Amino acid sequence: MTYDKLSKLFYKLTTSDYNLEYQKRKESYGCYSTNLTIKGFKRERLTNDTFELFYVNIPELMKLNNEVLLNSSKISSLVNKLPGFVIEPYFNKLIINEAQSNNEIEGVKSTKKELSDALKELTKPEPKNKKFLGLMKTYLHIEDIDPFEKTESFRVLYDNLVADEISSDDIPDGELFRKGYVEVNDGNSTTHIGISSEKNIIIALKELIDYLNDQSHPNLYRYMVAHYFYEYIHPFYDGNGRTGRLIVGSYLSRYLEKYSAITFSYAVNKNKSKYYKALEEVPSPLNKGEITFYLIDMLQLLSSGQKGIIEDLEENLLKLNRINEYLSHDNWTEKANERELLYILITINVFVQEDTELSLANLMTLSKKSRYLINNSMTYLINHDYVEVATHYPKSFKVSRECLETIIPV
Question: Which residues belong to any copy of the Fido domain (predicted)?
């Protein structure tokens, strides 16, 4: 028998067979009960039903769990093949994509340049431009976010991540969270109503913390269930989606690695309809609190994000082989410094972004060479059309289009 959603079986089976199937699932060896309860939701209204969230560890779910773990192992292996100097800028590229996607899902406008500028501001002792600063700082240090042990921690994350971008009308009006009513609307109808009152929000968040600490549940399932329950609680008027996905990311970064962790929102943004449908189907009274299919959808999204990173790394590592081949020719034997600087410029161009401009200071940091030596070497590379001067004040360089076409023809 195909394992179908209870909401689908309701129309296929008699009432007694439907109820029997529900009991079988709840009492099966593969069933995990969460002790997290939700109210039913139907036709834009909360119902009087209360359900405990549960899932069944069916083969499809187990297969996805293993797939995510294998993907993570492959990502770690590929990252270990990267030249040391490209690892940080490559990760920065990924967090810019992730942060932009997380914003786009919630309708917040942010350009890659704005987010890149925010990353640069973080390197300054006293940043002047505060826009998206907290967002980028949180993503940059995602693996350093501590597990959530107190309800106050959710407010701290909110303050660090999104508080600066929240309108004055949506600022929390309780001691930590919202006091009033909140609903989610897709533009046509209400799709969710958050828990009422700050007191109930705090109770539910404490239950969420207890669940996150429950080691009897497999890690990936636990983190994704926690994500749903956080969105169900909806502790803030605005910013719940962004903070909720970052919470998942913080746990994934410790369990898997930070590359898998920061690709979740990017994958969601590419398939928003699947993400929102999965969230909205859970509280249907006909599903009776089963969250199995939501978990399947979330792990599919996570895996698709991982596969995107794997494909990107594999393709770029093939290009890196071409770069190494080109720079191993005899004509570079007596130009070791020039070869190394060109290698850095081309590799950054491949792994991070085309037409990337590196300043003299950047090259000094990446190559560990003196200003004098770099200037001399860059003069040679410019004269032989390998490199162009991108800006004069401050001085920066980029690989010439002709050079790239010669080494890595498109």
Answer: 149-297
